[in-house]
Amino acid sequence: MDILDLSSAVLLIIGAAFFLAGTVGLLRFPDVYTRLHALAKADNLGLGFTVLGLVLQAPGVAAGLKLILVWLLALAASATLSFLIARRAFAKGISPWKPEEHEL
Amino acid sequence: MTDLYLILAVFLLINLLAALWRIARGPTPADRLLAALLFGTMGVAVLLLLAYAGGGQTLVDVALVFALLAVITGAAFVRRVWGRESNGHS
Amino acid sequence: MIFDLLLVAALLWSAVRVLTTPDLFRAVVLFIVFGLLMALAWARLDAPDIALAEAAIGAGLTGALLLDAVAHLHKKRQEQSP
Predict the structure, then answer these.
(1) Which residues span the domain enclosing A52?
(2) What is the pLDDT of residue C15?
(3) Is residue A68 part of a domain?
(4) Inter-chain contact B45–A15, Cβ cutoff 8 Å?
(5) Which of B13, B69, B80 is closest, CB to CB, to C60?
(6) How many whole angstroms separate alpha carbon B18 and alpha carbon A58?
(7) What phi and psi values does residue C75 have, to the nearest 5 degrees?
(8) Mean pLDDT for all residues in chain A
(9) pLDDT band per the 50, 70, 90 thresholds, residue A102
(10) CA nearest to B3 within chain A
(11) Position A99 in a domain
(12) Which of A30, A89, B79, C14 could form a disulfide bond with A97, CB atoms 3.0-4.6 angstroms apart?
């Protein structure tokens, strides 16, 4: 267990934690916009840390670059889709969720 | 390291099963589709982990196709199904 | 081993739900999910080429086409009903 394996394991576990946060957010958040926010965390950071942890284990430069290419593609896809869905939801008149007002 | 990859893959698969619940329940169509997109991303992560747990580098190509496919499905959904005029669906 | 059992359970559950769901759009989303899980199963069975075909054709293109068909059906139904 050298330093490379150790840092790779730490990065992978951080990525899995972000995926868990994304799933919990998808299950618990109240409306479409907040769920989009949770999904973006899982897409960008979860997959990003997973890819970063695996790049350290990659057998060659080409394999590592391909992993990073997968991440960049997922980034572009998630950003585009989040924008499209949020814009269409707003155009349909779904109002963003607001916390219930506390009367003090 | 291989054990850690497999444990994390099982962990992500359990997350996927939890997301199935949102697909079954989700109040609006967009919620169901968001869960399907989360499936796509987590599928990419699981495939990458499996590729480095002894599945071979070809699985990275499958992961690339997974990431590409999410865009097609989502764009078809937003453009055609969830249109501005069809309100009877939400 | 746990991975395979969970995968099989999710596959069976989503397959049953696709066939028994009355709402068409929900069935299409479940079909896409079924395709993704099936691709994972093929990858697990050491068949990456079939996994590639399943992910591209089974889940991606068929999913988009079915979504399009559902949209057409809804439009036609809305034109006929009023």
Answers:
(1) 3-91
(2) 92
(3) yes
(4) yes
(5) B69
(6) 31
(7) -65, -45
(8) 85
(9) low
(10) A9
(11) no
(12) A30
Write out residues 7-66 of C within 8 Å (CB-CB) of B.
7, 9-10, 13-14, 17, 25-26, 29-30, 32-33, 36-37, 39-40, 43-44, 46, 48-49, 51-52, 55-56, 59-61, 63-64
Task: Give A7-47 pLDDT, tens digit per residue.
Answer: 999 999 999 999 999 888 888 888 888 888 888 888 888 89
User: What is the distance between the alpha carbons of residues C53 and C50, in angstroms, rounded to a whole number?
Assistant: 5
The answer to whether the CB atoms of B17 and C14 lie below 8 A apart is no
Which residue segment(s) compose the domain that C29 sits in?
2-80
Asked whether the beta carbons of residue C55 and residue B20 sit closer than 8 angstroms, the reply is no
pLDDT digits (tens, 9 = 90+) for C31-77: 988 998 999 899 888 888 898 998 888 888 898 899 888 888 888 88
Residue A65 structure tokens: 């670059």
Instruction: Count structural domains, chain A.
Output: 1
In a domain, A100, yes or no: no
Q: Could you give the number of structural domains in chain C?
A: 1
Q: Which two tokens stand for residue C3?
A: 């991975």
Q: Residue-wise over A29-53: b if at least 16 C-beta within 10 A, else e?
A: bebbbebbebbbebbbbbbbbbbbb
